């Protein structure tokens, strides 16, 4: 195979290790060299990055990508009503084509706002995988399982998860990995969670689950199992380093200790938690205790976008107001949550999340000559507090250019918008 290489010349580089100036040489899917200056001789493609900020692609650790189709459908509701009265009835009409269309739309949105890896739980995941493959993004995907204690449903959910594992794990040159996705402790039976734990151990797969999102959930789990959600999950031997729990809003101090001692990874979803008025996760306490807290948007029906730049700002502001302390969750910490902590949560810290030689070339370039971030002075501050997804100009994932100078290269944006608009209209008309 001929070597494909890209030289990103004279960039300002920012990642969890700090700031420096330099050029980055990409060879095939990986970063080959980072130096103050690299000769462009023999290089296939040179990107002039003067006046540009080069950052690791964001890692969104909790999404339901195809829910882009439900954007703006059921706003201003509490989680229980949102799910029971609006979202689940609509989801009953989903099919593979709709999920593919919604996932493609989500991929467009993520590329345009600098995300290169995401952790997705939903339905018709082989169709979602197809969209991810075409987009050039990297993803961990899981079939979302709900059994409500029904044995037949449990067997069907496990069967579908196994089918998705067989069909999609390692797809798209390894860019797609499959995880197990039990929805939550209030929608999944103890038996289903036990089976998930066994499968995760047997095949070395991650587990993606919603936990402790609302006070109501804590009440329900306590009523049914006698304990708070994370204590219950620990007692049944479910928790481990391979578990990524989304939300983790309502936590007792014993639960925080459990999270730390079991090495559970968290995905903090501040916009969704605020919009559904679920509550505020004790992110500062969790980080101070040494728990790995990453960042996720949740689906576009509860956010209502997939912009990780916006999510970083919301995360920082929310902790400041929760603690009534402006020093809480500073910009540097939030930036780490959106990059290297996300990589660590997905077990990929050796591969992505920072800009280092031998890591995958998953990168985003920000144009520093945009009005929203002028005068250009403090990259971390500007990224978290001033920039938005629109300031992302170019994106590379796995060494492939997915967007250059604001133009999508891997997907036809107009076609995707049309496809998703039609799918959403057809789907809603069925409900
Ligand atoms: C079984 S696939 C995923 C399932 O989760 C639903 N969902 C989306 N956002 C949330 C959330 O914040 N809490 C709980 N469940 C959520 C989604 O609609 C699917 O049914
Ligand atoms: Zn969710």
Task: Characterise this structure.
With 431 residues, this protein is an alpha/beta fold. The longest helix has 18 residues, at 151-168. It contains 15 helices and 17 strands. α11 (308-323) crosses α14 and α12 packs across α14 (379-386). It is globular and about 65 Å long. β1 and β2 form a beta hairpin. Strands 1, 2, 3, 4, 5, 14, 15, 16 and 17 form a 9-stranded mixed beta sheet that branches. Strands 6-7-8-9 form a 4-stranded parallel beta sheet. The chain has a 4-stranded parallel beta sheet with strand order 10-11-12-13. The mean pLDDT is 97. It has 2 domains: 5-56 and 353-413, Roll (Urease, subunit C, domain 1); 58-345, TIM Barrel. The structure holds ligand LTUXU72L and zinc ion (ZN). Zinc ion is lined by residues 62, 64, 210, 246, 298-299. GO terms for molecular function: 5'-deoxyadenosine deaminase activity; 5'-methylthioadenosine deaminase activity; adenosine deaminase activity; metal ion binding; S-adenosylhomocysteine deaminase activity. Zn(2+) binds at residues 62, 64, 210, 298. Substrate binds at residues 91, 183, 213, 298. Its cofactor is Zn(2+). One of its GO terms (biological process) is S-adenosylmethionine biosynthetic process.
């Amino acid at each position: 195979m001929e070597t494909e290489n890209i030289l990103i010349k004279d960039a300002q580089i920012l990642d969890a290790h700090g700031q420096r100036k330099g050029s980055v040489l990409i060879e095939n899917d990986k970063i080959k060299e980072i130096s103050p200056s690299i000769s462009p001789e023999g290089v296939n493609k040179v990107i002039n990055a003067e006046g540009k900020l080069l950052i690791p692609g964001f890692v969104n650790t909790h999404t339901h990508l195809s829910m882009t189709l439900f954007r703006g459908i059921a706003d201003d509701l509490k989680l229980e009503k949102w799910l029971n009265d609006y979202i689940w009835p609509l989801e009953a009409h989903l099919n593979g084509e709709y999920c593919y269309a919604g996932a493609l739309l989500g991929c467009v949105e993520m590329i345009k706002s600098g995300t290169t890896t995401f952790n997705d739980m939903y339905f018709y995941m082989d169709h979602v995988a197809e969209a991810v493959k075409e987009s050039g993004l990297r993803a961990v995907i899981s079939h979302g399982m709900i059994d409500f204690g029904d044995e037949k449903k449990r067997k069907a959910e496990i069967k579908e998860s196994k089918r998705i594992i067989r069909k999609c794990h390692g797809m798209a040159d390894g860019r797609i990995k499959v995880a197990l996705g039990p929805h939550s402790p209030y929608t999944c039976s103890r038996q289903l969670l036990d089976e998930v734990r066994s499968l995760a151990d047997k095949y070395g797969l991650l587990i993606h689950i919603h936990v402790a999102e609302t006070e109501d959930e804590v009440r329900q789990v306590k009523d049914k199992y006698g304990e708070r959600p994370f204590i219950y999950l620990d007692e049944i031997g479910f928790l481990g380093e391979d578990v990524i729990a989304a939300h983790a809003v309502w936590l007792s101090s014993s639960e925080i200790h459990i999270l730390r001692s079991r090495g559970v990874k968290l995905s903090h979803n501040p916009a969704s938690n605020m919009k559904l008025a679920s509550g505020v996760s004790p992110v500062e306490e969790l980080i101070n205790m040494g728990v790995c807290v990453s960042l996720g948007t949740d689906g576009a029906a509860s956010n209502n976008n997939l912009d990780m730049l916006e999510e970083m700002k919301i995360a920082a502001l929310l902790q400041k107001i929760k603690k009534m302390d402006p020093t809480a969750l500073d910009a540097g910490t939030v930036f780490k949550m959106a990059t290297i902590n996300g990589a660590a949560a997905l077990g990929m810290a050796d591969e992505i999340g920072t800009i280092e030689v031998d890591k995958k070339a998953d990168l985003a370039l920000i144009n520093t000559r945009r009005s929203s971030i002028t005068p250009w002075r403090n990259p971390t501050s500007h990224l978290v507090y001033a920039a938005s997804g629109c300031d992302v100009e170019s994106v590379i994932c796995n060494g492939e250019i997915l967007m250059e100078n604001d133009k999508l290269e891997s997907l036809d944006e107009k076609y995707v918008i049309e496809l998703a608009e039609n799918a959403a209209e057809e789907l809603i008309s069925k409900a």
